[in-house]
């Protein structure tokens, strides 16, 4: 489903990702873990071109984009983006739109589908994330956990092949974390392909097929979730996990 090879990303002269190689199979859940500043968010953003890598290739589905030599066409960027749905730390809902308006905006403008069909899809997804009774509310009337569940429904509306989550629970009060993680776990059970940046190690252990440990812009170690988190091979991974307790 996803194949990343020799990816490099610099901000000005500072290299923040180097020699990144990994793949994600259809239906697989991959968690990116590692210390703050190790490049996890930047890597996730490179997958849907919110950041443009300097070198390397990103293949998602049958779309392959090579970076480095020539400028990317708008079409290539749009094509690659259409494969993924992104959920951010800070929800990013439109404040002046209701939940239903938030989640139906993209399919109505991009897909040119009929309004009735889009609303029907929206209702199905809002039921799935436990938000149907809030469909006519505005974001500021919702808790952070409810806003994040609406944001997940919004990303799912475009039927993405892969869902990308950037620390989806780190802006939430602790008592709201569980409701969001449960929705993501449900998606995992349904076979949704996902790449998730997270600090929730117990969640990663439960949900991930594979965990990548990043440090200093490199993937230091990767492996099956339980194996890497309970029995890491690399010293740096061990130190990181010990610090978390
Ligand atoms: P993580 O998600 O692991 O905390 P990030 O991907 O956010 O790490 O950041 C990796 C490195 O890239 C950090 O040193 C950060 O300061 C730097 N960085 C991230 N975004 C930018 C940017 N837009 N401009 C310059 N430096 C950035």
Written overview of the protein:
- It is built from nine helices and ten strands.
- By secondary structure, the protein is α/β, with parallel strands linked by helices.
- Strand 9 and strand 10 (218-224) form a beta hairpin.
- Helix 3 (99-111) packs across helix 4 (115-128), helix 4 crosses helix 5 (144-156) and helix 5 (144-156) packs parallel to helix 6 (174-189).
- The longest helix is centred in the last third of the chain and has 16 residues, at 174-189.
- It is globular, with a radius of gyration of 18 Å.
- The site of adenosine-5'-diphosphate has 10 residues, from helix 1.
TL;DR of this structure?
Keywords: ATP-binding, Cell membrane, Membrane, Nucleotide-binding, Transport. This protein is α/β, with parallel strands linked by helices. The chain has helices at residues 40-47, 74-81, 99-111, 115-128, 144-156, 174-189, 201-207, 225-230, 235-244; strands spanning 2-11, 14-24, 29-33, 55-60, 63-67, 84-87, 162-166, 193-197, 210-215, 218-224.
